[in-house]
Design a protein that fits this description.
9 strands, TIM Barrel, 10 helices, alpha/beta
């Protein structure tokens, strides 16, 4: 069987660290180019439709070294929902590792919705030895509707963004997330629904405080590519925000497609890794056992 140069990391990654080592023990030569998609959704997300095994097969076909399945774990739905989601997802990931273990590193993750609003439940849900990776995201702010349903032509954007960054600051300090998901992703819906752009740079002084807090607490951010199909021309957050995070002392950046269908697995990931490097990061991260493992971004 012809294997990519990096295939050995996959076999090592999918082992139980207690018995067989981990991805961290494997060294890659400078010539080995690794791409990982650290944000995907399966049928276990409320808005997903694909089987875990099909997502993994697509990742292998597209030459990815690693994939993180990060289904929506919306804390407002309650403990039984979140625990049930993890149980079903992790069972599928174990089976996928049996099938693809020599070809693909598979990270068991969740996208944790609004953990800063549900601190006790967030602590319970993330206290799980089988969990490799947690994206912390804000889709619904206190007292507001999901960003998807916002009437952006009539909302007070200044008030919305001030609240958003205040809540992102809380999220960065809550202690339950490895990275902050799709910062500024509201712009994806604004562009789609209103065909207008907003100058987010006016809010950068406040966003800088969020990025400094994340860096201080060892929390990363992601370069999310899901805006491209909606007409955006850069990652979320944008290149300048990636650079701001580096200037704030940030060290951890993942690349993620936020794919909800097989067709978008790995979409624009090489571009995202390139932007990560251009923003000043020598490495990008992929998570195992809630710890980042770093790969060359150049």
């Amino acid at each position: 069987m012809n294997r990519p140069k990096w295939y050995r990391i996959c076999a090592e990654y999918n082992k139980d660290p207690a018995t067989g080592g981990s991805i961290g023990e494997v060294s890659l030569s400078v010539s080995d180019k690794v791409y990982c998609d650290s944000h995907t959704h399966s049928q276990h997300s409320h808005d997903g439709m694909e089987k875990v095994e099909d997502i993994c097969a697509a990742a292998v076909r597209r030459g990815l070294a690693g994939i993180a399945i990060t289904d929506h774990c919306d804390l407002y739905r309650g403990k039984s929902y979140c625990e049930g989601l993890k149980r079903r997802l992790f069972a599928d990931i174990r089976r996928a590792r049996d099938t693809f273990g020599d070809e693909l590193a598979i990270s068991a993750g969740i996208e944790l919705g609004e953990p800063h609003q549900f601190l006790d439940l967030a602590a319970e849900i993330t206290d799980d030895p089988e969990l490799d990776f947690v994206i912390g995201s804000i889709h619904i702010m206190r007292g507001r509707e999901d960003f998807y349903y916002v009437d952006y032509e009539n909302v007070d954007l200044g008030a919305m963004y001030r609240q958003y960054y205040d809540e992102l600051f809380e999220l960065s300090e809550c202690g339950f997330c490895d990275v902050i998901g799709h910062i500024n992703y509201q712009i994806r819906y604004m562009d789609e629904k209103t065909r207008s752009r907003v100058d987010l740079s006016v809010y950068y002084p406040v966003l800088t405080e969020v990025l400094e807090s994340a860096a201080k607490h060892g929390v990363g951010i992601e370069a999310n590519t899901s805006g491209f199909p909606k007409g955006l021309d850069d990652t979320m957050p944008s290149f300048d925000v990636l650079g701001m995070f580096r200037s704030a002392g940030g060290e951890i950046v993942t690349s993620g497609s936020d794919a909800h269908t097989v067709g978008r697995v790995g979409e624009r990931i090489p571009y995202a890794v390139g932007r990560i490097h251009e923003a000043g990061f020598e490495k990008f991260a992929f998570f195992k056992g809630r710890k980042p493992v770093f790969y060359d971004a150049s």
